[in-house]
Design goal:
By secondary structure, the chain is an alpha+beta fold. It has 2 helices and 11 strands, in the order αβββββββββββα. 15% of the residues are buried.
Length: 183
């Protein structure tokens, strides 16, 4: 026969031992992705290393910006000091952004996913594929909880006036060749 006092003591002991582990910081990164085609297409960076990426949006002033989504999963307990740090290295310039990760469960209850979006504004005039190194880390104070690195290339589409000049030159050359044959 079970002694109710011993059961109560066992439950109390188990809860005292398990509670510190249940509240442990278990947040982690998912696979980061870049937004393309005005945000309608997601390109996963881990399965496409070195892929050329274009600015995320065509409209001014976003012609040189790239938006990255970072999915988060896990639990951040109350009182934790978690930070998401993103660093991008392009043309010898380091760009860094930091975000505080609030206490809670990721994705939140009732959601199937949760991502933090950040945008880097790169220098204009990058018309040839230029390597970019992207480092993403979740920090709890000075301790790294999760990290990932990605490498891809960034290139701006040719500006519209240049495209029209090339088209006009090609048409003028075709017309000149046709006129020369008719003589």
């Amino acid at each position: 026969m079970l002694n109710p006092h011993k059961c109560w003591f066992s439950i109390l002991l188990l809860s005292l031992v398990a509670v510190p582990f249940a509240s442990a910081d278990s947040i982690s990164l998912g696979n980061a992705y870049a937004l393309q085609n005005n945000g309608f297409t997601q390109v996963e960076l881990s399965s496409h290393p070195g892929i050329p990426l274009f600015p995320s949006f065509d409209a001014p002033p976003f012609q040189t910006s790239l938006t990255i989504g970072v999915p988060l999963t896990g639990v951040v307990p109350g009182g934790a000091n978690d930070t998401l740090m993103i660093t991008s290295l392009i043309l010898g310039n380091t760009l860094t952004q930091q975000f505080s990760i609030l206490a809670g469960t990721y994705p939140p209850p009732g959601s199937t996913s949760f991502a933090v979006f950040f945008t880097f504004q790169y220098p204009s005039g990058i018309f040839h594929p230029t390597p970019v190194k992207l480092d993403i880390s979740i920090l709890d104070g000075s301790q790294t909880l999760s990290s990932a690195s990605y490498v891809f290339t960034f290139v701006e589409p040719a500006p519209e006036p240049t495209t029209l000049v090339l088209l006009g030159t090609g048409l003028a050359g075709t017309l000149a060749a046709k006129m020369k044959r008719q003589r």
